[in-house]
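Posting for a labmate who doesn't have an account.
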Amino acid sequence: MRALREVVRSGLTIEETRLEPLLALRTAAGVAVVIGLALWLASPGYAAASALGAYSAGGATFQRTCRPRKVIALGAAAGLALSTFLGYLAAGRLVTFLPLLAVWAFVAGMAWAVGSTAGIVAATTVGSMLVTITLPTSAWRALEHAGVIALGGVAQAVLILLFPIRRWGAHRDALADALAAVADYARRLRHDPTASFDPEPLVSARDAAAVTPSQARTRPPVLHGPRGLAERIRPVVAALADPGVGAPAEGPGRERARKLLDAAADVLDTAAHSIRLGTPAEVPPETMDVLRVDEDHEVLEGSARQAAEQLVELLGEAMEIARTGDQSERAPRPIGAAGAGFLVRPTMLRLLPVVVRAVRHDLRQDSPVFRHAIRLAAVAPLGYLLATRLPLGHGYWAPITSVMVMRPDFHQTYARAVARLAGTLAGVALATGMVQALGSGTQVCAALAVVSAGLSYMLTRTGYAYSQCFTAAYAVFLLGMGGQEWEQTVPDRVVLTLLGGGLAMLAYVVLPAWETPRLPGRLADWLAANGRYAAAVLRNYAEPTREHHADMRRALLASREAGGAWQESYDRARQEPVRPRALTSREAEEAQEALKGFGRAAMLMESQSPRADSRSVNESKRFAEALEADTAQAAVDVREHRNPDWRRVKQALHAWDGAAGDRSPVVRREAELQKRALDDLATAVSRTPLERDVSSAREEQRVREAGEVEGDGSGLANGGG
């Protein structure tokens, strides 16, 4: 019940996001142009088909992706046109149409292996197949309608090309978010020297930095380097704040470190603002005064002073970015044959092998994407078959509802089903009132459909329920434009939406893909990746070479990827109505904190990485080998529910203590911190079978009591109101 209450609350929650009215206006204009031309040159039936293409292609451009919007619009239009034509070819009999619908829905479900944008766009093509097969009367007319739908997407792409709004906007936002995240991290370090950092903004910035060769030629110079700057500043501010390797815990040195961290946050926020808006910005003069390091009166000493000087040097680059904005005279990096000047993103033509590999990887029974595809393939034909047997019109609404609300995970599927029902009820009520007030003529319905489309685009990122409200109204107005009376469409829409949402929920019950049982595997992957990263950092201390530095960078990226996969699974598992057995919520939380501490110790060591001409730390090589071996074995133990052991790590650390003439006290201390973090991890996950059963029962009782307390509080609040 706690999970279901959370589902309802999440489905009706307004998301705090920045509205984009100009983008919504341009996309709604594309719908208006297509509808107007179709009504003038053809018929309301053609207008409905073209409006479907323009609306769906326009909606696809609002997905969070760094692909060019016009490419997304053209790709969506092509998929919509193809699904429409193939659907009509098989629509003569159920014996041919239902298998095609099942296969098409399965393919659309597997598109999630490529990414959320591909999955959502593919789902709209299933809806197109279900809707537009009712319009044509011959194969030639079906081809015409497919072409009209494709032209709707082409119209959106042309408008994007003619009226660009915030070029490189997604890339700017991702880079600015990364700098702002490091700024927030610096501020939190002022009060908590061991504060954690969520690397997700850095991961998103790296994804946004990948461009095709054609994009690399036109990318603004300001988007070339700041991502690496954020990557370098993050470990430096952590090292400055840490009492062990940076500023002392108390006294003037700590106050000086706090001022430097606050100044770093101001500079990074200013640079983020400049990048986001593309305009120069000035750093406050008082911040500049803090960043001046006085050689004679600087209170920081040793490694703390080294970190402060390094931070000031890096912030100088950030200030230069803030002052220049897009007016930087720095030329873009040359594009060599190997593409070394930028992160390569495959073009649409070269994306096919990537898609094939991703789909092949998820073609297995335990994959959430594969199970999602199976659910879609079963629910879409079943919903269509049941709806056509009901004495209602527009039976395709039921399977469309199922397809559009279903996601690979439980929480989003159920939350979107609740949101779609609420949005549909509000939307049809709104459409009813508008039609009664303004009439139901073709031109009136066309105008109302365009307005509804614009409002749907405007609210598309504030919550599914709110955008769905105007999407429902848009569908009612579109059918009214085609000659359908609103009295016929409103009750049909509500009943069939209930049917489709119920089928989507039932499908997840019959064939679930819970994340809770997958948590030990995700934790094991993260542990092994963190072990490889820490070992790479230690090997660089033993032998600081370019190859070891490159290994360290690759291991860091792999660790972030594994950590992101764990966090995504952990967040989903917390929202599932499943009793945790292998790893309870409390154990998962403690293990997560332990691994964060382990990774933080490695990051602090990386911040003090030696140069190529520095003296090597020979003891760190043996510790690196022991660390990598023990974490790899511990990952296997965690996955198979055995207690991990750090025998090699203890022996290597003991040998390090006995080494004569150790010249690396900082590295030795961080190695000890890593050992403590591993001990905390072992404490979190090491349980006897009896202890695990007792812990699971206590966890279930704790959740039940928390839910009862929450319910009592809500009742009191409602009663007081």
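Reply:
Got it, the structure tokens are right above this. Residues 223-327 form one domain.
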